[in-house]
Amino acid sequence: MNGRPISGASVGARRRRARGPLAVLATAALFAVAACGGGGGSDEKDEGGSGKAGANEPSQAVVTIAPKDGAKSVATSGALKISADKGKLTEVRVEDTKGNEIPGEIAGDGAAWKPEHHLAASTKYKVHALAKDSEGRTSAKDTTFTTLTPQNTFIGHFTPEDGSKVGVGMPFSVNFTRGITDPEAVEDAIEVSAEPKVEIRHKWYGNDRIDFRPEKYWKSGTKVTVKLNLDGVEGRPGVYGEQAKTVTFTVGRSQVSTVDAKSKKMTVVRDGKTLKTIPITSGAPGTTTYNGQMVITEKHKVTRMNGETVGFGGEYDIKDVPNAMRLSTSGTFIHGNYWAPSSTFGRDNVSHGCVGLRDQRGGGDKKTPAAWFYGQSMIGDVVIVKNSKDKKIQWWNGLNAWNLAWDKWER
Question: Which pathway does it take part in (predicted)?
Fold first, then answer.
């Protein structure tokens, strides 16, 4: 052997030399086998004349996916459409490059699939869809596309903070950096749930704030979970959300304190039991305190209070107000008061609308009523004012959602 391939001519010569009686018998046997095989296939035809070989034919189902494969700058809502013709969809999977799946639902007739919510912006997605025809044969289609990159975006500043522990009166509130003109799209992108379960409703204030609350104060121990799926939401034409975040907070013990402006006393109730009754001073006749249910939203061991910031001109400017806790956006606080005589508390209403408790300058004495109450309070605790000669505070003035009737809140 010289390693060269055998030519076609030499093979043919060898085959010719092999012919003879044995070769004839072998050829006859080969014909017989071929005849048996062909006869068996013919016998298996059904009455319609179509054999089992039809199961190997291509599926008649046609899967259509929009946008087209490789598309760029795809809209985050309304552009993704998946359907089947001459068959029914059996499986659809849409996910980003990190494996995050977009949930969706196949219509009852199997003709189409729709995503449950919008897509994220600046994201590449891959689509895998299967459909079956009437014979059960499967057709598949796979595509990829990339969503648009927004030129203008918005976010939501929320309260309470992630991981915080709050009082029973704390609603969940979001303030957006841009006015929202498609509130339904934003509502659909925010999911608020609680354990134990309770119905939660929402309410817009203007076009840049939305609050969520249950019908009554949260139960102690409730865990609230908020899913902000705002990434890709077109909140106003050409302006898209850019947040995808889960926020949780826990409700602590129940503390509800009631200020009676007439008797000039405050009763502090913790988990249904009275802790203490404290003498107070509330708004003077010309500057009365709002009535209503107010929620503590800020705590300051010492803060400055300037009348010019709330419409009182230069009537006061106290640079070291101790043990102060905010109750309204418009400037209502419950705080320590060291400048009024001790005899004022429980006897006279002399404030500019705040609720004052006896304190010392600097607020360092933990035994004073103001310091004690400050130490017992947390963000989200409720302070109710009654019997004041003023109107009820608006629900949007602070986080005071409880002052709007439940039937005014939207599901």
Answer: Cell wall biogenesis; peptidoglycan biosynthesis
- Would you call 335 a catalytic residue per the annotation? yes
Q: Quick one: tokens of 325?
A: 């806790």
| 242: containing domain | 152-252
**Domain identity same for 133 and 158:** no
* Cα separation, 39 vs 46, whole angstroms: 14
> In which region does residue 260 sit, left (phi positive, over 0), alpha (psi from -120 to 50) or beta (all else)?
beta
A 10 A CB-CB count for 21 gives: 7
Q: Within this chain, do residues 319 and 217 fall inside the same structural domain, yes or no?
A: no
E strands, 215-354, in order:
223-229, 234-236, 239-241, 244-251, 255-260, 265-270, 273-279, 292-295, 298-306, 317-326, 333-337
Neighbouring residues of 1: CB distance < 8 A, sequence distance ≥ 6: none
Which amino acid, residue 23? Answer: A
CATH number at 271 reads: 2.40.440.10
Cβ neighbours of residue 109 closer than 8 Å, sequence gap 6 or more: 88
Active-site annotation holder among 118, 202, 335, 352: 335
Q: How many CB atoms lie within 10 A of CB 106?
A: 19
Whole-prediction pTM: 0.83
Residue written as token pair 């089947």: 84
Q: Is 354 a catalytic residue?
A: yes
Q: Are 137 and 241 found together in one domain?
A: no
Task: Report the alpha-carbon distance of residue 147 to residue 189 in Å, rounded.
Answer: 18
pLDDT, one tens digit per residue, over 319-349 is: 999 999 999 999 999 999 999 999 999 999 9
Q: Is the C-alpha dihedral spanning 398, 400, 403, 407 positive or negative?
A: positive
pLDDT tens for each residue of 241-287: 999 999 999 999 999 999 999 999 999 999 999 999 999 999 999 99
In a domain, 22, yes or no: no
**Amino acid at site 45:** K
263 shares a domain with 398: yes
